[in-house]
């Protein structure tokens, strides 16, 4: 099994898990009472934005995205079509009402999968032979962009570098973890109750904030170095970083975790490529 095929399966799982999560929130019922899209509509209304997706268009696109999700892991031409259909959903529909960088990131991965199109679950005809170099470059560009842009934004924010952002977020998620209809947040029992006035907690979250920035800057560099040791170091640091994100947002960030870590498999320093 080639690195590209493993990547195909991981991205397919990331897309399906995201769609299933949103379906549980009621995303199939456009603007219905208590639905996921109604929540977003209300949020955007209060923030001064307008929801520009017609309900009929949304329902048709909702069916299209599931067709794409089913075709994505099949390989060959089916993956090409499936990836493009999923990318259509992310960039034509979802971006209009739920703009998130990690959502766009998954959409870009669907585009990359479309043009790698390796052998999949049911269909053969791998197309990744001879396209290794540009695939490596595209993977490195994607992972570097998402990490370095995130680090850049964090560095420019005194509130983040001081630890205040993570400290306040932790306080909010602790307070809200049992109130959500479907629990997106689950604080582990070994973590202490947040106290915004605690000097030790402020220092702890400042250290976590600086560490997150450092890892986001370092990991793409290690993924460039053509040595198994560099790749393994990047992979272990990446797992540690993403598991840190998962501790307090275990549900919402599962697709982002899968998409990010699978890109490591096809970056330049990955030892998993089959020549």
What are its keywords?
single chain; 67% helix; 275 residues
What structural class do you assign from the helix and strand content? mainly alpha
Helical proportion, percent range = 55-70%
Mean pLDDT: 81
Largest sheet: none
Compact summary:
The chain is an all-alpha fold and 275 residues long. It has eleven helices and no strands.
Describe this structure in words.
The protein has helices at 3-24, 36-46, 55-71, 76-93, 101-116, 132-155, 158-161, 164-176, 199-224, 228-248, 254-264. The protein is globular. 30% of the residues are buried. The longest helix is centred in the last third of the chain and has 26 residues, at 199-224. Helix content is 67%, strand content 0%. Helix 3 (55-71) runs antiparallel to helix 4. The protein starts with a helix and ends in an 11-residue tail after the last helix. The protein is mainly α and 275 residues long.
